[in-house]
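Q: Hi! First time asking for a complex rather than a single chain. Here are the components, and I think there are two in total. Is that enough to go on?
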Amino acid sequence: QKEVEQDPGPLSVPEGAIVSLNCTYSNSAFQYFMWYRQYSRKGPELLMYTYSSGNKEDGRFTAQVDKSSKYISLFIRDSQPSDSATYLCAMKAGGFKTIFGAGTRLFVKA
Amino acid sequence: DAGVTQSPTHLIKTRGQQVTLRCSPKSGHDTVSWYQQALGQGPQFIFQYYEEEERQRGNFPDRFSGHQFPNYSSELNVNALLLGDSALYLCASLDGPNSNQPQHFGDGTRLSIL
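A: Yes, that's all I need. Here is the structure of the assembled complex.
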């Protein structure tokens, strides 16, 4: 079993839809949770960064962490074609290495 | 403020050859990590360098080695290249090995093995 599980998709939605992306994990020591966006032939770009459980909102993006269920989510409101990319969840425990999910490919159709 | 820069952007090698990839960390960062990202997969941790020493290592063979210079820049070396080494190699930087801040990534070097 992988430490971090993420559905690779692809996920296709119409413009303006609310997108929900999710990851589950098995290591209860993870404390720091991140979402990265990666466009084709580019490096990962940090979108959201949260510590422990709770919600964090930044513009159209909301990150949720439920440590009791070992489940994290990223919501994108009013999705745009420019949001079409691969979304990677990532997490780490303290100063240890960051573990990534496989990434979910998202397509937003105009 | 310069972000993480990597060179070259693309390399083509043949099996058995050796390759060196280069990374300059974000300004103010002194810790560099290298990742391998195969097509359709998430990045896999190779190793981390701080104070010119390897601090952590992922599940990669000894064919993968690295170096960090006094100016914090880093190199990734891969010997005896295999077809399976074809991937995007990403460099990420941090302000200290125990930093709880998220890493900043470069755009990677795409390595193709023929």
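A: Chain A touches chain B at residues 4, 6, 8, 32, 34, 36, 41-46, 49, 51, 88, 90, 94-103 (CB under 8 Å). Let me know if you'd like any chain examined more closely.
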